[in-house]
Amino acid sequence: MQITLSAPSKTFLVGEYLALSGGPSLVATTGQRFQLVLQKVNEENPLVNKLNKAGIHPESPAGRWALKYSECFDNFDFSFVDPYNGAGGMGASSAQFVMFYVWTKMHSENISNWNDINVEELWRSYQSLFEGQSTPPSGADVVAQYVGGICLFQSEPFKIKRYSWNFEEQSFCILKTKNKIATHNHLSELKVDSFESLLPAVNRVIESFEEESAFDFTFGVNDFYEALKAKKLVARETFSLVHQFHKSGLALSVKGCGAMGADVILVVCEKKNLLAVKNLAQVVGLKWIADSNEIESGLEVHFDFDVNIKNKESQDEDVVMQ
Hints:
The protein has helices at residues 47-54, 61-68, 92-108, 119-128, 140-147, 183-188, 199-211, 214-230, 236-248, 274-283; strands at 2-14, 25-40, 76-81, 150-155, 158-163, 170-176, 251-257, 264-270, 287-291, 300-303, 308-310, 320-321.
């Protein structure tokens, strides 16, 4: 028997840093998808060996979760498929955790009666792996990659909502840089009680989805970038890239995404300018990842005997859970 779990890539549109203190964020999930392929086998193989063979560090969140529930992997070999070949920045680690978490839940329950995972329980289980850490990761990416779409997440109080992209004449582009900030080290240096100034811009972007206002989305993203700059939370290389897109006249708004905005550049533009933005990205050394036409569903599970399971959140765009 072969079972394949898959989860989408993720990009913070707005709200990184604010999510660390329980505030709201918006995370877009796009292709390409990460995969965990499990194959039922007869022979035994130590779980640590399986993790190392799959390229999953035993001390990663997924590795630690798997070792905690090692009995779920006793008769299964597995492989992890990373479409970015380890380049980082698109959610490989969080996808690994989501898929391992769901598999352990499926294994301990009757698969034929398996229902949707409790999303708050998923998030709390992820957070439990970082107890004692001064600034744990927000887990917004974990939740988003389970739910799919454009995911609103906040942890205090716990709330998620899934949006679609309804701005008919605008698009966003996700572009990968060659830069990388070590997130673990970066988080250890942050004071999470200092991000309140980011909230107005994030709220404006969230409201833009509620009101279907492309104007407020565009200006909200720009406002958030300016707020990040004021907090000195933008890498030097990102400054230069953002300036080049603004100078081109093609971009309505631009920001870096993730830790110090280093890994990924988000460009919002008119749909008619998508090709020109893609060409400029190539000129300045950025890799095209996805645009708003490539928004993905959340976690999916496929069995080799043609039984497919999708979480309900990926099918119901108006779901709200609190």
